[in-house]
């Protein structure tokens, strides 16, 4: 497995960030972001985990308001251990 910290997703403090979770698999993936809550659609609920159904895409948006390094991963532990994880970091 590659080191997720080797290629972090970099955001700028204060920006509004959109994440598109594209599920090309046939499994459910509860995608979880640490350190932030994200919004589903323009006026949707704020959550830190969203289930991405098979063959579906879910777009979320969050405010980059908590500098640090944060994990973004599937909440199925065996998926995360298989590599479904990334590190979100802030531009220095
Ligand atoms: Cu998963």
Automatic annotation (TrEMBL):
- What Pfam families does the annotation carry? Cu-oxidase_2 (PF07731)
Q: Which residues form the signal peptide?
A: none
SUPFAM superfamilies per the UniProt record, alphabetical: Cupredoxins
Which UniProt keyword terms apply here?
A: Copper, Metal-binding, Oxidoreductase
The domain of life is Bacteria
In terms of InterPro entries, this protein maps to:
Cu-oxidase_C, Cu-oxidase_fam, Cu_oxidase_CS, Cu_oxidase_Cu_BS, Cupredoxin
One MF term in the entry's GO annotations: copper ion binding
What sequence ranges are listed for the domain Plastocyanin-like?
4-88
Q: Which PROSITE patterns match?
A: MULTICOPPER_OXIDASE1 (PS00079), MULTICOPPER_OXIDASE2 (PS00080)
Name under which the protein is recorded: Plastocyanin-like domain-containing protein
Species of the source: Streptomyces cyaneochromogenes
């Amino acid at each position: 497995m590659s080191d997720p910290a080797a290629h972090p997703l970099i955001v700028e403090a204060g920006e509004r960030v959109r994440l598109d979770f594209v599920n090309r698999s046939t499994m459910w993936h509860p995608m979880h972001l640490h350190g932030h809550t994200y919004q589903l659609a323009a006026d949707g609920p704020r959550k830190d985990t969203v289930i991405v159904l098979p063959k579906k895409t879910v777009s979320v948006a969050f405010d980059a308001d908590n500098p640090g390094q944060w994990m973004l991963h599937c909440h199925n532990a065996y998926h995360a251990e298989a590599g479904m994880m990334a590190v979100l970091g802030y531009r220095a």
